Amino acid sequence: MANVRNLKKDINFVMGDIIEAVYLTELAKGGQPSEKSEAIIDEAIVAFDTLIKKVNAKKVENKTAHFRQINKELEETATQLVGKINAL
Predict the structure, then answer these.
(1) For the chain: N or C, fewer Cβ within 10 A?
(2) How confident is the model at residue 30 (pLDDT cuts 50, 70, 90)?
(3) Three-class SS string for the chain?
(4) What distance in Å separates the CA atoms of residue 25 and residue 44, rounded to the nearest whole number?
(5) Distance of alpha carbon 84 from alpha carbon 65, whole angstroms
(6) What is the rounded radius of gyration, in angstroms, for the C-alpha atoms of the chain?
(7) Would you give the distance in Å from CA 81 to the centre of its chain?
(8) Are 7 and 55 in contact, with CB atoms under 8 Å apart?
(9) What angle do CA 14, 77, 57 make, to 5 degrees?
(10) pTM, whole model, 2 decimals?
(11) How far apart, in whole angstroms, are the C-alpha atoms of residue 70 and residue 4?
(12) Residue 51 to residue 16: CA distance in whole angstroms
């Protein structure tokens, strides 16, 4: 398992790329933000905050399993958000 710093960077990069993809999709479709695109951005921000809180949790029994679970949640969340972006 990578260290905590790399996990935080991964979370930041993935959620940042998702938000950027939403903006690029908006731009390609006329440049006007829609309620759906704003909802995806809000969901990405909430997911980012939730994942960072989990990474910063201090009272964890098995850190390796905890960080693997966070990494798995990141992948699942990113996949769901990308699916929503593709549906725009």
Answers:
(1) N
(2) confident
(3) CCCHHHHHHHHHHHHHHHHHHHHHHHHHCCCCCCHHHHHHHHHHHHHHHHHHHHHCCCCCCCHHHHHHHHHHHHHHHHHHHHHHHHHC
(4) 15
(5) 29
(6) 15
(7) 8
(8) yes
(9) 80
(10) 0.88
(11) 11
(12) 14
7: burial class by Cβ within 10 Å (0-12, 13-18, 19+)? buried
Q: Which of 38, 46, 48 is nearest to 16 (CA)?
A: 48
Alpha-carbon distance 88 to 34, whole Å?
9
Task: Specify whether the CB–CB gap between 47 and 81 falls below 8 A.
Answer: yes
**Separation of alpha carbons 23 and 1, rounded Å:** 32
Give the integer Cα–Cα distance in Å for 22 and 62: 36
Question: 42 is written with which tokens?
Answer: 């809000």
- Tens-digit pLDDT profile for residues 45-78: 999 999 999 999 989 899 889 999 999 999 999 9
